[in-house]
Design goal:
By secondary structure, the protein is α/β, with parallel strands linked by helices. The protein is 34% helix and 17% strand. It is built from seven helices and eleven strands. The strands form two sheets. Strands 1-2-4-3-5-6-7-10-11 form a nine-stranded mixed beta sheet, with helices on both faces. A two-stranded antiparallel sheet has the order 8-9. A hairpin with a 2-residue loop joins strand 8 and strand 9. Helix 2 runs antiparallel to helix 3, helix 4 packs across helix 7 and helix 5 packs across helix 6. The radius of gyration is 19 Å and the shape is globular. The protein starts with a helix and ends with a strand.
Length: 321
């Protein structure tokens, strides 16, 4: 019965995939809360970090005032929190869904830096849950580390045609590649890792597969991933030192999504090989029994594994698929 139930779930999900692409989505566009254009900041370096932080806090405060006058008190409250003196943003754009890059820790002095790349439905209005994971990871890593919560792209909706294709990831990949280069300019000697959740793993996959040299990072960890748009981990690491990791919680619904890709009505739906499968060839890390949103939950097996990866260690119980 369990096997039949699993097949039934996969069949239904496949039908939903087709339906999301074939059936037109007709919904009124949500009015956008007004916000200022991003602040002008000098090129990032260790010497200009404080200037960037100050400018982006001021921009968030201005966005909060505009949201308040517009009548969206909930968004205004979230933006005021982001403008707090203890918050540090390398970039900030309060327009639309919002884009940010928040730093936890001393980026210029950190020996290890982790960049979190989020999945679908992440924006200013849902930013709290994304930041909570970054805070949990930073606390688990301890001193002389920094965590960057990179919301540098327009994430797709969980229930939308965009979440089924690489379109948003293709747009985001150059931004992520550029951001990694900026971090190298701020702290050239840091050990840099990308931690990529759900659709964020598609973004990381596209960024790593582009260009002749891949991404200059020590680790790419994929978790809760629907696939990354390539069939082998080797396709993600033109730089031979990059370690490719994959993990999935025992209660993550993403395991029921068909891990394949197919041409359909002029587009490619799906993301190919399952990253935790032997055929992909990643190092598989223990992720415990958690669900799709539990990987950075304090005290979880997955959080411990990801912290070890950032430190340059191998998680206990890891295997090479």
């Amino acid at each position: 019965m369990k096997i039949r139930a699993g097949r039934l779930r996969r069949t239904l999900l496949a039908a939903l995939v087709v339906g999301a692409v074939v059936v037109p989505v007709s919904a009124a566009a949500r009015p956008q809360v007004p916000a200022p254009a991003p602040a002008a900041v000098p090129p990032l370096s260790a010497a200009t970090l404080d200037t960037a932080y100050d400018a982006n806090r001021a921009n968030a405060a201005e966005a909060a005032g505009m949201a308040e006058r517009y009548g969206d008190r909930g968004r205004a409250q979230r933006l005021r929190a982001m403008a707090s003196p203890e918050r540090n943003f390398l970039s900030f754009d309060g327009r639309g869904a919002g884009r940010t890059a928040e730093v936890l820790g001393d980026l210029a002095a950190a020996e290890r830096v982790a960049v979190l790349v989020p999945g679908s439905d992440t924006g200013i209005d849902t930013y709290g849950r994304f930041r909570a994971g970054a805070v949990a990871l930073h606390e688990r890593l301890g001193p002389r580390t920094a965590v960057v919560a990179w919301l540098g792209y327009e994430t797709p909706g969980t229930v939308s045609p965009a979440v089924l294709t690489t379109g948003r990831a293709e747009e985001a990949a150059p931004e992520l590649r550029s951001f990694v280069g900026e971090l190298r300019g701020v702290n050239p000697g840091a050990r840099l890792s990308l931690l990529c959740h759900s659709y964020g793993s598609v973004v990381c996959g596209r960024a790593a597969a582009q260009g002749p040299k891949g991404l200059d990072v020590a680790d790419i960890a994929l978790y809760g991933s629907p696939g990354v748009g390539v069939d082998r981990a080797a396709d993600l690491k033109s730089r031979t030192h990059t370690r490719i990791w994959a993990g999935r919680g025992g209660d993550d619904w993403i395991s029921d999504v068909p891990h394949s890709s197919v041409g359909l009505f002029g587009t490619t739906v799906g993301f190919g090989t399952d990253p935790v499968s032997p055929g992909f060839g990643a190092r598989v890390f223990p992720a415990g029994g958690g669900g799709h949103s539990d990987y950075l939950k304090p005290g979880s097996v997955a959080l411990d594994s990801l912290a070890r990866i950032v430190r340059g260690q191998s998680p206990e119980g890891a295997s090479h698929a």
